[in-house]
Amino acid sequence: MKQTDLALRPATESDLNAVVAVHQQAFKGFLMTLLGPRFLKGYYQCVLEYRQPIFHVAEYNGRVVGFVAGFVNPPRFYEMLRQRKKNLALAAASHLVWRPHLWRRALSSLRRAETIALETDMPSLAELASLGVGPNAQGRGIGKRLVFAFLKTAAQQGVREVVLTTDAHNNDTVNAFYQKLGFVCTRQFWHTPNRLMNEYRLTLEQVELERQR
Fold it and tell me: Could you give the CA distance from residue 1 to residue 16 in angstroms, rounded to a whole number?
């Protein structure tokens, strides 16, 4: 795979099935993946239809091999999710029926989303919610290019800071990846009693200062 043949562009509705496929490959065993492809497509449809999305795909030879998805002003996005929770729940229903152990994790995620939705507007904050690269395309710098595309778009929309969360345990490669890009772990919290999360933040003004040196 040649970097010159790789194209990054804004995601469109026609990319959603490919984004879901990459997500399933990149996040095996994670809650959103276990909730099924209909749920994933509904979620990424929400990102796409949000008023301030930041959603890019990496395309190689006409095939989507990676993506980054997020949004400006997280409370307003989670408010939108809360309004659509019945449709999302229906999309995940069959998977929850056959995997009742997922209910606790799903409810924990729902509570977190509803808590954020009640917060005041944060127009200068963007959340990088999901970054995925297909297994056959990993190790080629695609994830880094997608993050830079996200940061550039965020800056163009007046964002000053980007936040993301990722697992604290058994996730050294991902944590090192974000730290190398300049993200700083600002806090840890328990998403569930067995899942400790790292919250990372990056100030875009600091990124610009580093580029000027």
Answer: 23
